[in-house]
Amino acid sequence: MDFSISVEHRMVRDSARDYLAAHSDSAAVRRATEAGPAHDDTLWRAVAGELGWCGIALPEAVGGAGLGAPGLALLQEQLGQHLACVPFWSTACVAAPWLQTALGSRGSAQWLERLAAGECRAAAVWPADGGWQYGAVAITARAHADGFVLHGSAAQVHDAAGADWLLVPATLDGGEPALFVLEPVALADEARFALASLDTLDRTRPMASLRLDGLPVRADACLARGDAAAQGLAQAWWHGKLMLAAEQLGAAQQCLDLTVAYASERIQFGRAIASFQAVKHRCAQMMVLVEAARSAVYGAAQAWEAAAMVDRAAMAAMAAMADARIEIAAASVAADEALRFGAQEAIQLHGGIGFTWEYDPQLYFKRAQAASHWLGGAGAALAYLARFVDSGSQAWRTA
């Protein structure tokens, strides 16, 4: 299948692969996580600021490269393969499309320009069920004086530590959706605002819990409300789901690469274990799942980009986006399976040392277990796909 990967896309992929191989190898990842969940600030300054990766998918009008979802997916694949300890997914893959959709092209320009320049890190709060609908939003906003008062909490917020912007979906009086932006640094001494770092299984992506105990905010902290806010959340969730699948694909590829390299060097009974038929079969199964996931992810990225090109006011836009969501759900399931199976097999085929701290399979196993629960995991994707099996081709009208 032709996924129309241009020369520019290939250049982005190859340069990212080479740069991360040199600056986000196993030793660098371990240094970044030695003291607990943390970001590699040096790597972030390089990829976000100097290399401009956060603007890869953004329009040229805001300082981006205009390579869209396919270009971003290729970057995410490389970042996942090297477990890069940077808040790229939260910033470029979630916050950017959220702001772009909720605020529109004009309203979001000033925000996207800063993201494209690598000046800001962003984190996002998801509904309590990890989905994309406001019915599960656990934070409320009550109008008060010249602003709002926020109440609620979130058990897990990706990349919240060190974030310059925190995107918070909330429900206004009467149930109207709204999107707020908070600046954690400015609220550091505010007793009614609390971000607490969590010690999680996968230390390569920090998590924090959020608590808002009647936090007063100005009126301009509310960036969007109504349909715009609801559409922004949905768009960010699906785009984030796609890019998470690309990240899982990269991690699965690394599990395969690590296993093949080890099996080629490990000698048993006078032969490299890679020559044993049973080992060959298990590596082959890993490869089959990785390649299937790659086809699904690349196809979903192309479908998303095609949907973005359709006039949103046209009925065709709804059908195109519904098709893209189906592709993303399928890619999410395929990538999740490839990574979970690949991480498991990497540990098994490394033998008695596979689970030890000194070898890398354990890092990817932890990522596989953690990522399988983010944004609803494969379960949410399968449930979405099941709706189309049950409802037929018109299910998109109520999706």
TrEMBL record:
<dbReference type="GO" id="GO:0050660">
    <property type="term" value="F:flavin adenine dinucleotide binding"/>
</dbReference>
<dbReference type="Pfam" id="PF00441">
    <property type="entry name" value="Acyl-CoA_dh_1"/>
</dbReference>
<dbReference type="InterPro" id="IPR036250">
    <property type="entry name" value="AcylCo_DH-like_C"/>
</dbReference>
<dbReference type="GO" id="GO:0003995">
    <property type="term" value="F:acyl-CoA dehydrogenase activity"/>
</dbReference>
<dbReference type="Pfam" id="PF02771">
    <property type="entry name" value="Acyl-CoA_dh_N"/>
</dbReference>
<keyword id="KW-0285">Flavoprotein</keyword>
<dbReference type="InterPro" id="IPR009100">
    <property type="entry name" value="AcylCoA_DH/oxidase_NM_dom_sf"/>
</dbReference>
<keyword id="KW-0274">FAD</keyword>
<dbReference type="InterPro" id="IPR013786">
    <property type="entry name" value="AcylCoA_DH/ox_N"/>
</dbReference>
<feature type="domain" description="Acyl-CoA dehydrogenase/oxidase N-terminal">
    <location>
        <begin position="8"/>
        <end position="119"/>
    </location>
</feature>
<dbReference type="InterPro" id="IPR009075">
    <property type="entry name" value="AcylCo_DH/oxidase_C"/>
</dbReference>
<keyword id="KW-0560">Oxidoreductase</keyword>
<comment type="similarity">
    <text>Belongs to the acyl-CoA dehydrogenase family.</text>
</comment>
<dbReference type="InterPro" id="IPR046373">
    <property type="entry name" value="Acyl-CoA_Oxase/DH_mid-dom_sf"/>
</dbReference>
<protein>
    <submittedName>
        <fullName>Acyl-CoA dehydrogenase</fullName>
        <ecNumber>1.3.99.-</ecNumber>
    </submittedName>
</protein>
<dbReference type="InterPro" id="IPR037069">
    <property type="entry name" value="AcylCoA_DH/ox_N_sf"/>
</dbReference>
<feature type="domain" description="Acyl-CoA dehydrogenase/oxidase C-terminal">
    <location>
        <begin position="239"/>
        <end position="379"/>
    </location>
</feature>
